Amino acid sequence: MKQVEAFRSGFSQVFDISSLQIFSPQELDYLICGRQEIWEAESLVHNIKFDHGFTAKSPAIINLLEIMSEFTPDQQHAFCQFVTGASWLPTGGLAALSPKLTIVQKHPSSAVSTLNTSGVTDAADDDLPSVMTCANYLKLPPYSTKEVMLKKLLYAILEGRGSFDLS
After folding, report:
1. 10-50 confidence digits (pLDDT tens)
2. Which member of 67, 89, 141, 150 lies 3.0 to 4.6 Å from 127 by CB, making a disulfide possible if both were Cys?
């Protein structure tokens, strides 16, 4: 409540807050938080670092970038919350994130793993992605298919909200 009152007080010094009634909630959100970033696989690859087993050409990364570019605004928000711990990206979007979003390969937790025909271990499909929010670090298993990755990623970002269980 103190933060809201401080915001109202400071805002009122510049602009009569009652004048904001002419704006819809969506318009106010845009004015205060900025435009929603449009994620496209081609631009995402330039704003993300790949390390520890992944490159921009890794099949898992290609799948991830396609999935991210298909996210709804709510899924983008949940993904940002999951990976960074913050509700919103900084002004400038992913490009302005510091430290840079880094995606690394997470090795399967199962002791028994077998390579399938694509060279990916089936055991990876049993694991969820995890994060280190302080470093904007996503630890992603090399899932066997894009569909498995989407299912596991959505489960982690939507069901893991507000929890550090997947860190």
Report:
1. 888 888 888 888 988 877 776 776 666 788 888 899 999 99
2. 141
Q: Are residues 24 and 40 in the same domain?
A: no
Q: Residue 58 is encoded by which pair of tokens?
A: 């890794």
Single out the catalytic residue among 17, 20, 86, 134: 134
Domain count, the chain: 2
Active-site residue flag, 80: no
Q: Is residue 51 domain-shared with residue 127, that is, in the same domain?
A: yes
Residues 62 and 142 in one domain: yes
Most confident segment among 24-33, 102-111, 125-134: 125-134
Q: Which residues of 99-111 are buried (b: 16+ CB within 10 A; e: fewer)?
A: eebbbbbbbbeee
* Domain enclosing residue 13, as ranges: 1-33
Residues 6+ apart with CB under 8 A from 127: 106, 108, 109, 110, 141, 152
Write out pLDDT tens, residues 49-87.
999 999 999 999 999 999 999 999 889 989 999 999 987
